[in-house]
Fold this sequence. Notes:
Helices cover 83% and strands 0% of the residues.
Amino acid sequence: MLSKIILFIAVAALIIMIIEMWLPDHEKIMLERLEGFKIYNASDKQRKMKLPIYERIFKNMEILLIRYFGEQIARGRSLAPLKNKLVQAGLDTEPIQHRAQRFIFALLFGGLAMLSYNYKLVIVVTIVGFILPDYLLSKRMQARQLRLKNEIPDFCDLLAAVFPGCNGFEDAVSRICERYHTEIAKEFQRTIDEINANISKKNALRAMATRCGVPQIDTLVSQIIQTDMLGTEMSETLRIQAQNMREMRKQESETKARKASVGLILPTFFLLFTILTVIAGPSILQFMQAMQAF
């Protein structure tokens, strides 16, 4: 009986959220009237309307949850580390949105698990739904950092090759980013945009290193800043850094290979035991039967 009541409340709340999604947002209308001459951007609305219905429902639930429980969601640990993780994962999501997504996943997973009338399953599935966004965020951040690690040596080689024929570091980076659209090229292009927006090169490069969260890029940024301050040859510095990065990547691959060989010992033991059982098993059974006959 209690599970039916909880399920009814969850379904009613979902229906209310869906209905409110289609109702006019009076707060938004008031702000638009106050702004008066603001140009209406129809493309944003059209893009949102093209989204699948489940994405619009999820976004609406997220907005409502932040609107009514934003202060409670934002309490607790500082949002700065979470913001850093979101940036390193390449997401534009705010920390409070990510926390709201955790509660939404927990409610949805828990609501679906209530159909089984198994309270232990409900608790387990709700916990899984709560930690799932953090797990997906970590996997996305690791995948992006791996792409950056693999792309940075080639980018440094290209930068070193075109640098002598360019008017400085910014011009060389811009020429490469015009032709290549990799993850690291996007980060460097954003850095150039920040430099063009009157942000110092040092601060823009350090901000890029923070967004990437890759030790190799931290080292590269430090070397670029030092070379720029000392006035030494930039192309030679870039070649050396590219060579060092490839060497580090080779060492990491060798380390992973050694760890993999150690990890294969246990599966190999079980495989060998299985093969011996299949080969020697019939002979052992025949021997035991022969001994029983005596």
